[in-house]
Amino acid sequence: MELIVISNPAAVADESSLINKLFIAGLKYFHLRKPESDVQTVKKLLNGIAPRFYERIALHQFHEIAADYGIKRLHYTERAREASNTIQWQSKLDDGFTLSTSAHDISGLPGLTPFDYVFYGPVFDSVSKPGYQSKLGADFKLDKTNIKSKVIALGGVKLSNLANVKAMCFDGAAVLGTLWNEPDEALERFKQLKENLPA
Fold it and tell me: Are 70 and 55 in contact (CB under 8 A)?
């Protein structure tokens, strides 16, 4: 099962250094999502990350700077995906990019074939967004019969429910609030999640 980390939407003290440490501790993929930041702020953050990790970073916005950093992973929010089209995605795939997206409706997952993986949530009550609650029952199991993309559980994922993610038939988990609500604990919490990640 995969474990993906999404950045804190706000700035974090020594953020680049902390991201480097997460990669060194075994983080496979990091999603850089800064919806309120400008492109210069995002570039400054990237400049502090070791270049050897760029291939493992997905950009949520400012896709146009990907080439400057050798980044080959692009994420499309639900809104951005709805504003683009299959021709644009195919062009990116032809250029060697790996694409991901977000979805909040299970019925739409089978149609997201250009995307390597899809964040689906909230699977549990959100840690970072109070009041953002899951609509899934405790006995939910994802039927992947017609879904070609990997589906990554998002929302409220923490150590105590990591095994549930696997039982629900998701391909992986993405974490945000569990790490960033207490940035001083982020590295240690990531290590605990990684050690307890179901196969």
Answer: yes
Q: Contact, 53 vs 23, CB < 8 A?
A: yes
Distance, CA of 160 to CA of 191 (rounded, Å): 14
Domain count, the chain: 1
Residue 136 pairs with which residues in a beta bridge? none
pTM of the model: 0.95
Structure tokens at 151: 């589906």
- Convert the pLDDT of each residue in 132-179 to its tens digit: 788 888 789 999 999 999 999 999 999 999 999 999 999 999 999 999
How far are the Cα atoms of 103, 142, 146 from residue 15, in angstroms, in the given order?
27, 34, 39
Which CATH number does the domain housing residue 178 bear?
Answer: 3.20.20.70
Cα distances from 106 to residues 88, 144, 185, in angstroms, run 23, 10, 33
Q: What is the pLDDT of residues 97-146, one digit of tens each?
A: 999 999 999 999 999 999 999 999 999 987 777 767 888 887 899 999 99
Q: Say if residue 184 is exposed, middle or buried (CB neighbours under 10 Å; 0-12, 13-18, 19+).
A: exposed
Question: Domain residues for 88?
Answer: 2-195
Residue 152's contacts (CB-CB under 8 Å, 6 or more residues apart) are: 2, 4, 117, 118, 119, 120, 170, 171, 172, 173, 174
Token pair in block for residue 107: 């019925």
Both tokens of residue 11?
């700035």
